[in-house]
Write a structure and sequence with these properties.
Elements (H helix, E strand, L loop, with lengths): L3 H20 L6 E3 L6 E3 H17 L4 E4 L13 E9 L1 H6 L5 E8 L2 E9 L4 E6 L3 E4 L2 E2 L12 E3 L18 E3 L4 H10 L4 E4 L3 E2 H13 L3 E3 L14 E2 L2 E4 L3 H7 L2
Parallel strand pairs: 3-4, 10-11, 10-12
Antiparallel strand pairs: 1-2, 4-5, 5-6, 6-7, 7-8, 8-9, 12-16, 13-15, 14-16
Helix pairs in contact: 1-2, 4-5
EC number: 3.1.3.25
GO molecular function, one term: inositol monophosphate 1-phosphatase activity
InterPro entries: Inositol_monophosphatase-like (IPR000760), Inositol_monophosphatase_CS (IPR020550)
C-alpha cells in the first residue's frame, strides 16, 4: 500500500514543478534577501504559497518549516513537520540551468520519515521513506560502495577544499558541482557520484529530504562530525553535511 505521506509529497512536488516551469527562462522578478542569504524569485514565492496551502490543508496538525516562510516556534510544539525548500538552487533557476529542485520532507520527532526531491526540468522524481528504500521514478536506488577515495568524484563547492576544513589537506578526489544541495544528495543516492559535502552550517530545508534518500539507498548521510542529523531544531540548521556510499568513513576521518 502506498505511503500516504509520500504520496502527498509526490503530488505536491509535481504541482510545484508545473508552477516553476511557467517562470523558468521567463525573466521572473528577483529580489535579494537580507543578511546575504541570496536571491529569491517570484517563482519561489508562488511555489511556497501553493505548497503551504495544499500541504497544511491535508495535514493540519503538522508543523511547517520552509525557506520562504517566516519561521516561528509553533512547529516546535508538533510531533510531525513539513520541511520544505520550494526551489533549491535558486541561482541555477535564475541562470537558466536545469539543475534546481523542489525539496519536500516530513520529519517526526527529529527524524525524516518521508522525502521527495523533484527536478522538474529533468522529470526526475527521487523518493524515500524511512525503512522503505529510495527510488528514482519508481526504480530502486543504490549508492556507490567500496571505492578508494582518491578515485572518487565528490559534489562540492570549491571553498570546501580549503585546508582549514581538513586534518591535513583535502583528499585527492575529483570535484564536481551542482547548485542544489538537495539534488547533490539525490545524485549520491542514485549512484552517479561517490559523495557530496558542504562544510558550513546547513539549513534543514536544503538537506532533510536528500539525506533520507541517501541513507535509504544504502549510503550514509551525517553532519560533518559524522553524527546523525536531528531535524526541527529551534534554529533550523545542522553542522554541515557529508553524504556518500562507501567513502563516507574516509571523508569523515580526513576532516579536521
Amino acid at each position: 500500500m502506498p505511503n500516504p505521506d509520500l504520496s502527498l509529497l509526490i503530488n505536491a512536488a509535481r504541482a510545484s514543478g508545473e508552477i516553476a516551469r511557467g517562470y523558468f527562462n521567463a525573466s521572473p522578478e528577483v529580489w535579494e534577501k537580507s543578511g546575504g542569504q541570496g536571491p529569491v524569485t517570484e517563482a519561489d514565492l508562488h511555489v511556497n504559497r501553493q505548497l503551504s496551502a495544499d500541504l497544511q490543508a491535508a495535514r493540519s496538525d503538522y508543523g511547517w518549516l520552509s525557506e520562504e516562510t517566516e519561521d516561528n516556534d509553533a512547529r516546535l510544539k508538533t510531533d510531525r513537520q513539513f520541511i520544505i525548500d520550494p526551489i533549491d538552487g535558486t541561482r541555477a533557476f535564475i541562470e537558466g540551468s536545469k539543475d534546481w529542485a523542489h525539496s519536500l520532507a516530513i520529519s517526526e520527532n527529529g527524524v525524516v520519515t518521508s522525502a521527495v526531491v523533484y527536478v522538474p526540468m529533468r522529470d526526475a522524481m527521487y523518493t524515500a521513506t524511512l525503512g522503505g528504500g529510495a527510488t528514482l521514478n519508481g526504480v530502486p536506488l543504490m549508492a556507490l560502495q567500496d571505492k578508494p577515495i582518491d578515485t572518487a568524484t565528490v559534489l562540492s563547492s570549491k571553498p570546501n577544499l580549503d585546508s582549514k576544513y581538513w586534518a591535513n589537506t583535502a583528499p585527492p578526489f575529483k570535484r564536481a558541482f551542482r547548485s542544489s544541495l538537495a539534488y547533490r544528495l539525490a545524485l549520491v543516492g542514485e549512484g552517479r557520484f561517490d559523495g557530496m559535502l558542504t562544510l558550513r552550517p546547513t539549513w534543514e530545508w536544503d538537506v532533510a529530504a536528500g539525506m533520507l534518500i541517501v541513507s535509504e539507498a544504502g549510503g550514509t548521510a551525517s553532519d560533518q562530525a559524522g553524527k546523525t542529523a536531528v531535524f526541527n531544531n529551534p534554529h533550523p540548521q545542522i553542522n554541515g553535511t557529508v553524504a556518500a556510499g562507501g567513502i563516507h568513513a574516509a571523508l569523515i576521518e580526513a576532516l579536521a
